[in-house]
Amino acid sequence: MQARRLKSAMAIAAVAALAVGAAGCAKSDRDGDSGEAKTGGTFIFAGAGDPKNFDPIFNDDGESFRPVRQMFDTLVSHKPGTAELTGGLAESWEHDPTGKVWTFKLRQGVKFHDGTPFNAAAVCYNFDRWYNMQGAAAQANMIYYMDVFGGFAKNEAEGASESIYDKCEAKDDGTAVLSLKKYKGAFPGAFALTSLSIASPEALKKYDANTVKQNGDSFAYSAFANEHPVGTGPFTFGGWDKTKGEITLNRNPDYFGEKAKVDKMIIKIIKDENTRKQELRAGTVQGIDFPAPADTKALSDEGFQVIARPAFNILYLGINQKNPKLKDLRVRQAIAYALNRQQLAQTKGPTGAKVADEFMPDTVLGYAPDVQKYEYNPDKAKQLLKEAGAEGLTLNFYYPPDVSRPYMPNPQEIFTILANDLQAVGIKVNGVPRPWNGGFKDDVQTFGKQDLHILGWTGDYNDPGNFVGTFFGRGKAEFGDQGMTEMFDAIAKADGTVDDAGKKAAWEQVNRDIAAKWLPAVPVWHAPPAIVVTKDVEGLKASPLTDERFNTVSVKK
Amino acid sequence: MLRVIVRRLLQLVVTLIALSALIFVWLRNLPGGPVDALLGERATPETRALLTKALGYDQPILVQYGKFMQRILTGDFGNSIRTGDPVTEVISRAFPATVELALTAMLIAVGLGVPLGYLAARWRGRLLDHLTVVGTLLGVSIPIFFLGYLLKDVFTQNIHWFPPSGRVSIGLDNTNITGFFVLDSLLTREFDATADALWHLILPAFTLATIPLAVIVRMTRASVLDVLNEDYVRTAEAKGLRQRTVRGRHILRNALLPVVTTIGLQTGALLSGAVLTEKVYNWGGLGTLITDSITGSRDYPILQALILLSALVFVVVNLVVDLSYAFIDPRVRVR
Amino acid sequence: MTEPTTQAGAPAPRSSKEQASDAGRNRLSDRKKARLDELAQSTAAPGGVSLFRDAFRRLRRNPAAIVGAIIIALFVLVAIFAPLIAPHDPVQRFDALTDQLTPNNIAGPMDGFPLGSDELGRDLLSRLVYGSRQTLFVGVLATLIGLTIGVVLGAIAGAVGGWLDNILMRITDVMLALPALLLAITLVALASKSSQWTVIMAVAIVNVPIFARLLRGSMLAQRESDHVLAARALGVKQRSIVLRHMLPNAMTAVIVQATLTLSVAIIEAASLSFLGLGDPDRDRAEWGAMLGDAGVRYFEVRPELAYYPALAIIVVALGFTLFGEAMREAIDPKNRR
């Protein structure tokens, strides 16, 4: 109330001071005009950062993927609004009993933006391109490819594993057959990875896509990646005005699926969270991503559509067993009991945040309904610490103070609350803030300097291997659990199981054992990241994987 | 005069080389860095090793620096880690934005500050004088980012007079020649774009102008007061010269000297303020660039170039002020 | 007659004759230096006790100085007696406050918590009270460190002269040349991580060249002055001339500058917090961090989280500025008529 009054008082003062502004007011309807003239209008969405470039294979982050997803398609895609798989450029797919040979029946009559046809040869051209990529600079940028396929025809990195990719054959125009050297649980989900989007072979060749030039300590990407990305998607590339931070995408009238409702989409890059919100209110943008948890209620009260994506992520408190005290399961359990995660979710979680019991959301195959839970119980925590002889324990708690991730909107606050809880049961916490890109990941993941840390993950596709497998599938400095071979073996076995029922059972057991026997970390919460659009926007389907395609979106005028 | 300029430039080159070596070596010894920034959560030991190799970080530091200097001598400052754009391009995109903002702020500060300071001095002890003094004290005591936040909240959220951020309306189709949007649109006679750009400029420029404005008002006021007490002014007045002549020829001209100095001195403060103002208003200038390349993407090539550039800018501004100083006061000879 | 309040903000103006006399020194950084030298010279004249008394008398009559002094005194008192004044432990989270706490809601004033909750369910009033401590700590320490290094460098340069003086002054020139905040940002970045100490050091180092320049100017001015010449003639050792005679005289100017620096230091620490380069420890209550971090983040949920620390910063900065300017004026030889 008081704030209101102060604001209006200031407003009056300001009216006197800045009469100049009146001149500007007349201009405020300007941007509206340009959109109205066209039939479909323009949809303006605020992104949070610069994309790296537009070549799908060389990218691995959401800001780059947002425009890429509008211009490219993948073989397999997700049902809008879910993490379930459905046909993409391939209408159907099947694998042989070994899981090593995958046959894709391709959609017919699809054309790339440059008019060249999409067919099996184009698919195989893309797979071969990735596998045969040369040069450390190019390979180093193919994070997802490496994650899925392991290696290249000629690995630039010493000690890199052999690729599981064998070959891709175009049986006929509409059938592509992919052979792998080894089955991996990641498939078919991984075929839906935005990085593995199919690009026009002609354009790739013409614009020299494979050239990633290393210039001193940085890379320069090709003309394909910067100016001529050519895919099959609902939008074509219009341009990236880097001075203004605007990416323009034009409607693709020949799109095979649901054609875009708007004529043009602009992605405006606004790095500041608060400014994104203010632009939304000012009506200059029609949608924003990742609003601050503090703003969601106000925005929905004002009539904006705040859409919470189903949570497909996890925040966890990692425990490093390099510290002998933490090798004792009872101490790790004590830590789990000490945390009031319910209160944390209530006070600092984005709307809809849920306390996590497992390291993957319940929509993923292999989620066990009956794992051991650690309800908030400080007395039990104290007792366990006593039994383990670990009273007066002092732990180094690493956290990144300078970053905001969808699963971790404000690490400082999360750390402060968790540390508070731990102190309350007699564990002395020594907080160690390290910048996200300035030592946190290095210290935690490479050197394992920490006792405790907070970190998380947003899933890439619907597979337990992408969650649990990534965290605990092998010895990592992060958890200092080089010796937990039992866990590694169980996960490797689960990941290698081809049939669905066996796979499900194996992963469920893994989840149960993680909670009861291994507890390498404490799952904290699943936090649904929100996306906000004005009430004039219709047809947006928010995806748990943030895999939104804006072709279904229309803007009422 | 020419010798002075040449000597300054030589000094500059030496300083820049020393600075570049220091920054280069230091940055490469920091934990984390571009490798972390490029990999996100998905880092594995293999990808990390590969990227380290690809970026050339596995080579001895001297070799790296040698290559760096080699490239710099050919005018190549490397590429942005994040987008792969040449650093020179990235900076030349951001540079006009900051200059446009800073110039406008300086215009406001001088345009309002000198008359206000003069009036306050002439009407010393009256209401306007008191208000001015209190205002200037507040101006230097309020954290500028907070002022920006308040102004932005009031003028863009409560009363919708100004746009919350950016340099022009989104989707505006204006011609970009020099990167100075106001200038460009005037040149191409896209006057609606000029208005649009100005409309976006006002709030950030006023925010940025606060501190220089306060300082210039104070300086002008003090300087005019000082001159008013000088014998020659009294003489002039006693002689019965017309008041306008006295003011113009004697008071203002003499009082302006220290003010010009102050204006020059405020350039540094202006750049400091620009870092904060640009963050508040999502202004795609050098300030945003430097904080981003430090806190976010660890874009070391950009950072290196920016540090060198800021040293350069300062010396140039320095020189310009010196020359204008000599111009206003013929007694001053630039050595 | 001293100037009324209105003069408080104005730095000592220079007559055009003076301008012309040192017209050669017209490089920009030279001029920044020139202003410092001027302040330095103002204390160079021998006067000892009488000068202090004189200045103090002028100071006492200046309402600006009195207001400034009162603000500073209050601030320091609150900082010292924070544990007695604050109703609660500043880091304790209270159920009464956390119960209402959600990302969209922060509890306002209620029984026992006169200003309500902060962003983590702690007592805002207690944090503000304790905040004076940390703010004072950061401001004073940053200033003191800057002052100490600066004074040592300046004293060495001024006392020794020659090539050492030259080198030291070249270095301070470069540092003066960079915009203060940019220098601080760069320093924090170069430290690779931010902590309370990086903030203090960054703000301190920004001030080193100012103090160095100031002290050197004062020493140079004194080298030729009567009392130093007299001491030298009496055969007093160089070291003790510097320590006993030159340094104490120069300190007045240093103290004036330090007072002014304090307000800048507090604001700069807040700015660093706003840029995400401040002290990351959320348990520690410091006004700059409170404003620059939670203050702006929860501005819409509860603007008081920004208003209170902002107000505190503004008032305290104002206090130091008023008092500092008044002191500068009081020791200005031109006012000694």
Keywords summarizing the entry:
heterotrimer; A: 557 residues; alpha+beta; D-Maltodextrin-Binding Protein, domain 2; Dipeptide-binding Protein, domain 3; seven-stranded mixed beta sheet; six-stranded mixed beta sheet; 20 helices; 20% strand; globular; B: 335 residues; mainly alpha
Characterization of the model:
The complex is a heterotrimer of chains A (557), B (335) and C (337). Chain A is an alpha+beta fold. Helix content of chain A is 33%, strand content 20%. Chain A has a seven-stranded mixed beta sheet with strand order 10-11-12-1-13-21-14, with helices on both faces. In chain A, strands 16-20-15-19-17-18 form a six-stranded mixed beta sheet, sandwiched between helices. Chain A has a four-stranded antiparallel beta sheet with strand order 4-5-7-6, covered by helices on one side. The two termini of chain A are 34 Å apart. The model of chain A is unreliable at 1-38 (pLDDT under 50). Chain B contains 13 helices and no strands. Chain B has helices at 2-28, 34-39, 45-54, 61-73, 87-122, 127-141, 144-158, 181-187, 191-228, 231-239, 243-280, 286-296, 300-328. In chain B, α5 (87-122) packs antiparallel against α11 and α6 packs across α9. By secondary structure, chain C is mainly α. Helix content of chain C is 71%, strand content 0%. Chains in contact: A-B, A-C, B-C. Chains A and B meet through α1, α2, α3, α6 and α7 of A and α2, α3, α4, α5 and α7 of B.
CATH topology of the largest domain in chain A: D-Maltodextrin-Binding Protein, domain 2
Uncertain runs of chain B with pLDDT below 50, 5 residues or more?
A: none
CATH class of the largest domain in chain A: Alpha Beta
The overall strand count of chain B is 0
**Coarse structural class of chain B:** mainly alpha
- Could you name the ranges of chain A where pLDDT drops below 50 across 5 or more consecutive residues? 1-38
Silhouette of chain B: globular
Helicity of chain B, as a percent range: over 70%
Number of helices of chain B: 13
Main β sheet profile of chain B = none
Helix content of chain A: 25-40%
Q: How much β-strand is present in the residues of chain A?
A: 15-25%
Let me know the average pLDDT of chain B.
Answer: 83
Number of helices of chain A: 20
